[in-house]
Every structure is written in structure tokens, then in C-alpha cells.
Write a structure and sequence with these properties.
heterodimer, A: 111 residues, mainly beta, six-stranded mixed sheet, B: 117 residues, seven-stranded mixed sheet, 48% strand
Chain lengths: 111, 117
């Protein structure tokens, strides 16, 4: 299966909001409400931010929110902070035997 | 607290074999899929394959089919990722992860594999 498509990089200033997109197909994002988002700082284990499109695990800030429209899922970060500078990865359920597919990752720079 | 604990970093030569491990705690290990994720230096996450401990049959992403073997010993709640003949291009961080509906919902701490002559 093909990887989900994410922009390579996005940037924003402190206090602003940014949105990262994640585009798939009807075999993954489009027909299923099962998308996750992860934050990864350099040298660290990915941290689950969002699951099932728009649910947050306990302890994750409500500045992080998710949505989906058609074959594209989105992660919005509001009130950007310096510590939000990291890589962000999306994943989705897929109908292939391996059940999971990732996006290529997006580097967020806080200006 | 449920955890996935991976074996330590490895330094190997091209052509050598390797088996790394991922030990789970808690009773959820045998009731949830366990997958392996590759992250090459400076790159994104790649889902290599997945195994259901109760069934022990692994499924592989096309890029990894025939390149690695995923196995599990449910009696000791441990999953494995194995190579028969390592290449320099296998140098990467490898994570085991418990699969949730949308993707991994629990990660191991990672095992760094370095393959160099």
C-alpha cells in the first residue's frame, strides 16, 4: 500500500494556528474514521496526540485537534508554542493485511 | 502500567544475522496486534508488518516482505524482529508498537540497529 501524503514542512509564529494535512484514499482515510497523529521531538519516541480522527488521549493539550474530510485528515495546532517545533506523523487504518499505514511526516518550525 | 520494553542497541557487520525483541507487560499483549516500525536516520515512520500474538501469523508491508521475519512467543509476551543477512541500509531505529484502530497507541522505547563494516 502507498504511504499517506503529508507536506514536508510547515511553519508558524508563536500564538498562531497551523494545520497539517494527511491525504490518503478510500482504502484508508476516506472510508474509515480511524486516523491518528503523533508528535516526535528529535531523538524521542513518537507521542500519540490524536486517535480516531478527533479524540485526544488523557493529558494531551486541547490546543491539538483533528478532523477529516473525504480522503484527507487534518491536524490543527492552535496557540503555537516553541515546544511544538517537532515532526508530526499521521497514520490510518487500511484495508491491506498489515492494517496500518503512515504518512511521510511533516516538520513544524515555530518561527 | 502497560509497557513495551525493547532489547538494547546493536552494532553489526553486513551479512550478519540479528534478532531484536519487544517484551510486553499486562494481559493486553496477547489480545492486540503488535507491529514493528522502521525509522531511518532523518526519515519518517514506516510500518513494517504486524502480528497477532494469539495467531502468530505475521503480515508484511510490501517493502519488507522477504527482508525480515516477525515472530512472537506469547508464553513470555515477547515479539521479535529478525534479519538473516543485514545490509548497511538496515541501519535505523526500530520501534515495536501496539496497534490501535487508527495506528499505534503504545510504543516501545526503540532499538537502534547500526550495520557497518
Amino acid at each position: 500500500q502507498s504511504a499517506l501524503t503529508q507536506p514536508a514542512s510547515v511553519s508558524g509564529s508563536p500564538g498562531q494556528s497551523i494545520t497539517i494535512s494527511c491525504t490518503g484514499t478510500s482504502s484508508d482515510i476516506g472510508d474509515y474514521g480511524y486516523v491518528s497523529w503523533y508528535q516526535q521531538h528529535p531523538g524521542k519516541v513518537p507521542k500519540l496526540l490524536i486517535y480516531d480522527v478527533n479524540s485526544r488521549p488523557s493529558g494531551v493539550s486541547n490546543r491539538f485537534s483533528g478532523s477529516k474530510s473525504g480522503n484527507t485528515a487534518s491536524l490543527t495546532i492552535s496557540g503555537l508554542q516553541a515546544d511544538d517545533e517537532a515532526h508530526y506523523h499521521c497514520s490510518s487504518y487500511t484495508t491491506s493485511d498489515t492494517l496500518v499505514v503512515f504518512g511521510g511526516g511533516t516538520k513544524l518550525t515555530v518561527l | 502500567e502497560v509497557q513495551l520494553v525493547q532489547s538494547g542497541a546493536e552494532v553489526k557487520k553486513p551479512g550478519e544475522s540479528l534478532k531484536i525483541s519487544c517484551k510486553g507487560s499486562g494481559d493486553s499483549f496477547t489480545s492486540r496486534y503488535i507491529g514493528w516500525v522502521r525509522q531511518m536516520p532523518g526519515k519518517g515512520l514506516e510500518w513494517m508488518g504486524v502480528i497477532f500474538p494469539g495467531a502468530s501469523e505475521a503480515k508484511y508491508s510490501p517493502s519488507f516482505q522477504g527482508q525480515v521475519t516477525i515472530s512472537v512467543d506469547k508464553s513470555i509476551s515477547t515479539a521479535y524482529l529478525q534479519w538473516n543477512s543485514l545490509k548497511a541500509s538496515d541501519t535505523a531505529m526500530y520501534y515495536c508498537a501496539r496497534r490501535g484502530r487508527s495506528g499505534p497507541d503504545l510504543w516501545g522505547q526503540g532499538t537502534l540497529v547500526t550495520v557497518s563494516s
